[in-house]
Amino acid sequence: MTTRMLSQTMSSPTSATSSLRGIIHVVDDDRAFRTAIGRLLTAAGHEPRLYSSAAEYLAAGDSQSPACVILDLRMPGITGLDLQHALAGRASQHPVIFLSGHGDIPSTVRAMQGGAMDFLTKPVATPTLLAAIKRALERDMQRHREVEHLGEIRARYDSLTPRERQVMCGVVAGRLNKQICWSLHAAERTIKTHRSRVMAKMKVRSVAELVRLAEELSASGVPLETWKD
Q1: Residue 177's closest CA among 165, 161, 188, 193?
Q2: Is the separation of the CB atoms in 75 and 33 below 8 Å?
Q3: Residues near 81 by Cβ (< 8 Å), separated by ≥ 6?
Q4: Exposed, middle or buried, 37 (CB in 10 Å: 0-12/13-18/19+)?
Q5: What are the chain's domains?
Q6: How far apart, in whole angstroms, are the C-alpha atoms of residue 105 and residue 111?
Q7: Residue 3: per-residue pLDDT
Q8: What is the pTM of this model?
């Protein structure tokens, strides 16, 4: 059964092969399938990393990008859906593609609601698989850029002194220098100096840019100062 399925599923990469290369984590308890898909992915220019179980994958390091995870649905022990749920809590979660011979509507719905990029059934055409991988790698690259961007913004915010954070909070809240100095019991010249330093450290040229960065920080879970008049 496995040999027949692989002969229909895995053909040589064609013009659908993407120029985008990445690490492809394959979690499937079928040894013959892992061997076949590993050869296919290598021929397509990717770096396959093969795991016989969800536990084996969870124990491995997978922080490198761009990357994606191809999961079987039914596996002994931790299932594909269980693994997807476990990965959802990781900061470095890679996009997930389900590739299974046991797909059904409830499982497909659960997988897609859990954030899966695609749910493909075996046998799958090589161009279809490689196209799904390309989309997943593109999303992972975007996620990686966003993580780096947020890390940079957090580093800028961490460089502010407690007073500078208070001033930033007032500026973001739309308060004038006079209002900020009155609320913080400080001289207006001092507030202007702090405000200038905030703009320089946060690497922004306008209040609108500062507000946008503050919104991004807040959305990512960074606790910001709350302005109180």
Answers
A1: 188
A2: no
A3: 73, 107, 110, 111, 114
A4: buried
A5: 2-141 (3.40.50.2300), 159-219 (1.10.10.10)
A6: 10
A7: 40
A8: 0.74
- Bond preceding residue 95 cis, omega within 30 of 0: no
3-state SS record for 156-204? HHHCCCHHHHHHHHHHHCCCCHHHHHHHHCCCHHHHHHHHHHHHHHCCC
Report DSSP letters for 34-99, one per residue: HHHHHHHHHHTT-EEEEESSHHHHHTS----SSEEEEE-S--SSS-HHHHHHHHTT-TTPPPEEEE
* Cβ atoms of residues 223 and 169 within 8 Å: no
Distances (CA, A) of 189 to 56, 177, 193, 195: 60, 9, 6, 10
Quick one: tokens of 112? 């897609």
Task: Quote the tokens at residue 133.
Answer: 């991988």
Contact call for residues 120 and 91 (beta carbons, < 8 A): no
User: Along the chain (229 residues), what's the average pLDDT of each consecutive run of 10 residues?
Assistant: 45 57 95 95 96 93 87 90 86 88 80 89 92 95 91 96 96 95 94 97 97 94 86
